[in-house]
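Hi support team,

I submitted a single chain yesterday and got back a structure, but I'm not sure I'm reading the token output correctly. Could someone confirm the output below corresponds to the sequence I sent? I've pasted both exactly as they appear in my results page.

Thanks,
R.
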Amino acid sequence: MKLRSALPALVGALALTMLSAVTATAVDDPNLDQQLDDLAVAHGTRVLDAGHVDMGPKYDDGVWTMMIHDDVAKADANATSVWRHPDETVFHVLDQSELQIPDDPIYSFIGPEPGESVWVIPQTQNPDVVWLGWNTQDPEVMTTIDRGITLSLDGVQGPGDVSVYLQSGTFGEPQVLWDSRQPEVQPLWVDVNTHTHANWAFTEPGVYLMQVRADADLLDGSQVSDTQVLRFAVGTATSTDEALAATWEEPTEPSDAGTSDGANNGNSADSGAAAPGDSAAETDAEVAADSDQESSPLVPILVGAIILVAVALIAGFTIAVVRGNRARKQVLAQRATVAAADEIADKEQS
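Hi R., thanks for writing in. Yes, this is the structure output for that exact sequence:
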């Protein structure tokens, strides 16, 4: 095998290995401590411009469904938290969320230059901005899924770019989870009984649609999956009615005559194929040079790096599985204890 063709394959394999195992590890925050009951599903249009809200899987009439946990009870003791359908819900990101990009290269992944504006749903709650996260804490979900779920960003459509990232403190290196400029599906592993919030940075005001998918292996050996579109009206002046009416447009497959327009940031297949006859255009000198490079020490070094990364990821995954199972057992044990106490109390009263 020629080194010229081997190196991209090895580097690509290394990158894919790292990408496919991304796991959101949020900073410990007492505000993230929550335990969900079997909450009802509410119907009707809902615009959320402040307060706590999560997306996550729930069984709606026995069907695995990606839904929105509207935690209005957190701010209003007289209200009841409910689950809502994404196609009836809009996240209105008001101008109170507008921030300027710091003059620090660690934020260059967001896109705009230092000093330019972005609209940010923060990782730490701002009472004037909707606080969006995700959870895997629906009681039936917790008792049926095997270890956790894969939460994937399939694509984004809107006037600008979107970056979702975690950051430990003010000076920690951001952990980018999702980036709308990436053409491929971006999977994120989420353990059972997880509640996480991240930073959602939008580079332009306007209506955004984010297509998100939740997949899981169940304890009975079956698999479940659901795809939904999240709706954002970024900027106070942006119409929430337009966000509700917006429809997801599947990306156009590139034609043989040229490349497709990528303005919508939707995911599409890579069309970068080599022109016919490229391999035959090599000269004898190039072939000889490739032969000389085959013995380069870079190949075994890269192979070794891939093996080390794979071992580390397997070890990390094992730890995550143990923690996830422990968390599920703790919650189930707590609920069993409460149920037993209620039963004893009922018997004493009778």
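A quick pointer for reading it: The CA atoms of residues 51 and 76 lie 10 Å apart. Let us know if anything else looks off.

Best,
Support desk
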